[in-house]
Design goal:
- With 741 residues, this protein is an alpha/beta fold.
- The protein contains 37 helices and twelve strands.
- The strands form three sheets. The protein has an eight-stranded mixed β-sheet with strand order 5-6-7-4-8-9-10-12. A two-stranded antiparallel ribbon has the order 1-2.
- A hairpin with a 2-residue loop joins strand 1 and strand 2 (10-11).
Length: 741
């Protein structure tokens, strides 16, 4: 055919002669340059239409080239396969004198199905466009077999799943002799491509002949899912319990026990014979000993990972370690913050330096400043004069960037580095900066974020170390340039720019340098809605220790009896509106405590009110204990422009906020927030808003710093303003670059 679309940069020239059909047969479409039997014209037309759809936007009459992907190399390959090669097949079928009319129609119809299904699959992002050459090539091979009355199943067997699926569609009417065998082959390919669908498939296809191998493979890939199905009471569960595979046997035994969830973190060790169920039984009811066994298992896992071995259910282990560290240890030492150290830290006294280490890094979001310092002190004491770098070696450098970042944040990094030889300290900090490009994706930049956060603290307290980190960022950038690692170049370019910006005399414009929205201010226009109102939502939580209730009462003193504000209350929430200046509307749920989570219901009532009245907050404020943060984050919407966490500015929380609202300015604290600091910050923000002015972070923070002395000043210094929140800025910049690419 004379296609008018460019192929690999060249136009396909017309092949010359006029088709021997009526002028109206092609209804305005370009005519083929070879004779077409009148009875088959419609099948040629249908194929041509499907080919055209591949390169035209839906509903568009534009006949030029529409790119299939952002990669021109792939686009060229797709165009060559779906136009040139398919045209060649189309012509060869039509002109083949050995083929009967019904055979020609069958193959032309098959090509039409191929083009249509490829197009719909590519548009739905199910099929990778790069599969087009394989699809057309394998179709041609399938035609060759079909002509010899042979099955197409050998072609399906060597094809990608989506290629095989479309080939079956192309040879179903009339059905090729190999279609039945091909469908069996395709089922295995489907489950290999989408292994997470294996167990749901087996639940509804229990008698599937290859169920044994599928269950065994899934047990190694996702033991948790097999465990969940084994814990049921149906035919599949009963079969799993008698399955001969050793991993499945371990999972089935766990699923049959009431303590199955407690065994699960140790599944790999039990399967390998390094632990028994009895070993876990001895400690599962003792919080201290259970935690210690988990740490021992984690150390075994990281040792194996260094040898390129991947233990099963590492995630389950670390999640339960995290849970135990917070609930049993950190909650106690936080709750006893007014007690003497011997009483406060009694619960952690039995722990080794390594066990205390994991307590710190896993409890980052909840551990108080004083709690951290007490734990850090005990780590140093229990090392008994051994250089502190030995600690990192003993944990196989697991979470070592997190630990260094926390030491910097809590003013303990100098102590950490001085308790090891100078040469080792130098190597440690080089390692801290090295290899950030490894295993880093848009969903996993935690190490790089920790480095950025650490620099913010280090720059203020150790200019020499900060200068060395900046130099290391530059050297690592050059290393990645030489290696041609684009991801590494991106990461270290951002780190280098953030480090340089910390020195205000360098006057680095982060917005311009990183291609992100301004980080030093939020214009009033970005916060006001179409009616000129700035809507704020504040989350409070009722607590048995009255913390949330007291925080709410203190918050309300900012507005009660003040002529600049009007207050309206109901049983679930309060509405506060400015009476002077620009409209600032603040909505806060009441911190209700009791059965059935009454403050959650109050928050739901408030959200219902906001939705009904089309009020979209641009300022969100979390008030309360750190374990309530997740609840607040779950209610933030993309309209957020300022988010005050008040506590817990760890990577996961920053990442959650910026996933919801990529341009949010985040104020967080290294420890639990305090009313003495929260109120002045909120008051300063509201003053700017009522004046219709932009929220300027640097001058605001400078003025706030003058208000505090003594312990209050220390608490204020734990708060991180948006322009110093280098971890959040890193995430914004990295995602911005990612989206651009």
């Amino acid at each position: 055919m004379n296609k008018l679309l460019p192929i690999a940069g060249l136009l396909i020239a017309s092949l010359g002669s006029i088709a021997q059909t009526s002028a109206s047969a092609y209804q305005g479409l370009p005519k083929p340059s070879y004779p077409v039997e009148r009875s088959r014209v419609i099948f040629h037309e249908n194929l041509d239409k499907e080919q055209k759809k591949l390169f035209q936007q839906p509903g568009s009459h534009y006949k030029g080239y529409i790119p299939v992907t952002k990669d021109e190399t792939i686009n060229s390959a797709v165009r060559f396969a779906m136009l040139d090669q398919l045209d060649a097949l189309q012509k060869s079928v039509e002109l083949d004198t050995l083929l009967k009319d019904n055979e020609k129609i069958k193959y032309l119809k098959g090509m039409e199905i191929l083009a249509r299904n490829f197009g719909s699959g590519a548009r739905a992002r199910q099929i990778q466009p790069a599969l087009a050459p394989e699809m057309v090539e394998n179709f041609g091979q399938a035609v060759a077999l079909d002509r010899k009355l042979k099955g197409i199943d050998p072609i399906v067997a060597k094809s990608h799943y989506w290629v095989g699926k479309i080939l079956i569609d192309c040879f179903t009417y009339p059905e090729n002799s190999g279609v039945k065998a091909s469908k069996d082959i395709l089922q295995i390919k489907y489950l290999q491509l989408y292994p997470e669908r294996t167990m749901p498939f087996l639940k509804t296809n229990f008698a599937y002949p290859k169920r044994d191998s599928l269950i065994a493979a899934e047990a190694k890939r996702d033991p948790r899912k097999v465990y969940d199905y084994a814990a049921s009471n149906d035919a599949l569960a009963r079969y799993i319990r008698i399955h001969p595979d050793p991993v499945v046997k371990v999972i089935a035994e766990m699923a049959s026990s009431r303590s199955g969830q407690l065994y699960f973190p140790f599944i790999d060790e039990i399967y390998r014979g390094k632990l028994t169920f009895e070993d876990v039984d001895k400690v599962k009811d003792n919080d201290l000993e259970y935690y210690r066994l988990m740490v021992k298992t984690r150390l075994s896992h990281t040792e194996r990972m260094l040898q390129k071995d991947t233990p099963m259910e590492r995630k389950a282990l670390i999640e339960r370690m995290d849970n135990k560290a917070r609930q049993y240890f950190i909650s106690q030492i936080n709750g006893l913050h007014n007690a003497q150290d011997p009483v406060r830290f009694k619960v952690v006294e039995p722990l080794s330096p390594q066990e205390l280490y994991f307590l710190c890094v896993l409890g980052e979001d909840e551990i108080y400043t004083s709690s951290y310092r007490g734990v850090f002190k005990r780590i140093v004491t229990k090392l008994k004069g051994t250089p502190t770098d030995s600690l990192f070696m003993s944990v196989n450098f697991d979470y070592f960037r997190k630990f260094i970042k926390m030491a910097a944040a809590y003013n303990e990094l100098d102590t950490l580095l001085k308790l090891m030889p100078d040469s080792n300290a130098t190597v440690l900090m080089k390692s801290f900066m090295f290899g950030l490009e490894k295993n880093t994706t848009i969903n996993s930049v935690e190490d790089a974020v920790d480095v950025a956060d650490a620099y913010s603290s280090i720059f203020e307290k150790n200019k020499v170390l900060a200068a060395n980190m900046l130099e290391e960022a530059r050297l690592n950038y050059e290393r990645n340039v030489q290696n041609g690692d684009l991801n590494g170049q991106k990461i270290y370019q951002i780190e280098k720019t953030l480090f340089e910006s910390a020195d205000t005399t360098s006057k680095v414009d982060l917005s311009k340098a990183l291609g992100i929205p301004p980080v030093y201010n939020v214009p009033f226009e970005r916060l006001a809605d179409s009616a000129g109102r700035v809507i704020q939502q504040v989350f409070f939580y009722g607590d048995d220790d009255k913390d949330g209730q007291n925080s709410y009462a203190n918050f309300m003193t900012l507005f009660k009896g003040k002529p600049d504000w009007a207050i309206t209350e109901n049983k679930d929430f309060v509405t506060i509106k400015s009476t002077k200046g620009k409209s600032v509307w603040i909505f806060a749920n009441k911190p209700l405590y009791g059965l059935d989570d009454p403050d959650a219901k109050a928050q739901a009532k408030l959200q219902e009110y906001l939705d009904q009245n089309q009020l979209y907050p641009t300022v969100y404020i979390h008030r309360g204990h750190s374990y309530h943060v997740k609840s607040s984050l779950n209610q933030i919407t993309p309209s957020a422009r300022i988010v005050v966490l008040g506590s817990c500015g760890g990577y996961n929380n920053l990442n959650d906020v910026l996933t919801i609202s990529p341009d949010a300015h985040i104020i967080s604290s290294k420890q639990i927030g305090t009313r003495a600091v929260n109120e002045p910050i909120l008051n300063s923000i509201n003053t700017s808003l009522r004046n219709g002015a932009a929220v300027e972070w640097m001058p605001m923070w400078a003025e706030l710093g003058k208000l505090f002395t003594g312990e209050a000043k220390e608490r204020f210094d734990d708060y991180i303003p948006p322009y110093k929140n280098l971890g959040a800025i890193f995430i914004k910049a990295y995602r911005g670059v990612e989206e651009e690419e």
